[in-house]
């Protein structure tokens, strides 16, 4: 059994004269949460559409769950779940009826409905029509639907957009639990803090090219400045000083302050994932 659940080899896609994705290469391991980050028009949605078999690559190839996304498209659909940003649910039907209809499409036993409703904490609201649900509750119904057939790989497009902080936190916990159970998850998000907390690795895509691919921790260490803020007591007042950790002269000054008993607190200044993205991709996520 292969541990690589998503593999892209020189994957590219053009639309007329526009090259939306330019020969990207990456892989995602079993059970990994992989963040795919990029500004609007960078190529992330086109990449996901290729990986889920919705459009064919212009060049290169990809495998998901061991299936070629072009030659084995039909088999692929049985092993992946997809949740896009725009809801496509039946508003007049209850959550249960929506999921029962999806069971019929997937040829899944209806008994599976209660299991996924319990997983997304909606079993007590299952009989209510979708039109009465909040955005967060509808998002959870879509995730439940994507999990009905027990996919090996789950694709999530902006899963936390429009959710209140409590609902977004609960959703992150669900995603983390699915990963712990062995499911591979590729998600796009504009929320850098969410990607930092949730993803094992992240890839930055800009103008159709991958410009970074590593753990959030490594990216922050590689591209952030090694500085610390030192709080001193001087003449009865509190003063903050910035120290560059790689500057011997500034290190010596810090040691002198400590010897004199002036240092009250020291805090390292780690770059945020957004800082790194701006530095590498040249623009902020909107």
From TrEMBL:
Q: Which Pfam families match?
A: ABC_tran
Subcellular localization, per the record?
Cell membrane
Identify the main location: membrane
This protein's name: ABC-2 type transport system ATP-binding protein
- SUPFAM superfamilies noted in UniProt: P-loop containing nucleoside triphosphate hydrolases
The family classification in the record reads:
Belongs to the ABC transporter superfamily.
Question: Which of UniProt's keywords are assigned here?
Answer: ATP-binding, Cell membrane, Membrane, Nucleotide-binding, Translocase, Transport
Q: State the Gene Ontology terms under molecular function.
A: ATP binding; ATP hydrolysis activity
What organism is the protein native to? Thermosporothrix hazakensis
Its domain of life reads Bacteria
**Positions of the ABC transporter domain:** 6-232
Alphabetical list of PANTHER family matching this protein: ABC TRANSPORTER ATP-BINDING PROTEIN (PTHR42711), ABC TRANSPORTER ATP-BINDING PROTEIN NATA (PTHR42711:SF5)
Tell me the lineage of the source organism.
Bacteria, Bacillati, Chloroflexota, Ktedonobacteria, Ktedonobacterales
Any one of the GO CC terms: plasma membrane
């Amino acid at each position: 059994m292969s541990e690589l659940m998503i593999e892209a080899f020189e994957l590219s896609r053009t639309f007329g004269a526009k090259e939306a994705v330019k020969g990207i290469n990456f892989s995602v391991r079993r059970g990994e949460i992989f963040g795919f980050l990029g500004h609007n028009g960078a190529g992330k949605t086109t990449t996901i559409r290729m990986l889920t078999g919705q459009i064919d690559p212009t060049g290169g190839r990809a495998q998901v769950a061991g299936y070629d996304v072009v030659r084995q498209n039909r088999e692929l659909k049985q092993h992946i779940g997809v949740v896009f940003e725009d809801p496509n649910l039946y508003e007049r039907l209850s959550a249960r009826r929506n999921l029962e209809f999806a069971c019929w499409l997937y040829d899944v036993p209806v008994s599976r409905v209660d299991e996924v409703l319990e997983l997304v904490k909606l079993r007590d609201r299952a009989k209510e029509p979708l039109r009465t649900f909040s955005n967060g509750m509808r998002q959870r119904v879509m995730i439940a639907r994507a999990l009905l057939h027990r996919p090996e790989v789950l694709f999530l497009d902006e899963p936390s957009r429009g959710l209140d902080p409590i609902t977004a936190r609960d959703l992150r916990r669900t995603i983390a639990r699915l990963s712990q159970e062995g499911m591979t998850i590729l998600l796009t998000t504009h929320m850098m803090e969410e990607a930092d907390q949730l993803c094992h690795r992240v890839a930055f895509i800009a103008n159709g090219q991958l410009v970074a691919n590593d753990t959030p921790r490594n990216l922050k260490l590689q591209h952030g400045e090694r500085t610390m803020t030192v709080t001193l007591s001087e003449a009865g007042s509190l003063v903050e000083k910035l120290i560059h950790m790689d500057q011997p002269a500034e290190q010596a000054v810090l040691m002198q302050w400590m010897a004199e008993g002036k240092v009250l607190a020291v805090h390292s200044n780690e770059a945020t994932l957004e800082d790194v993205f701006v530095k590498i991709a040249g623009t902020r996520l909107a």
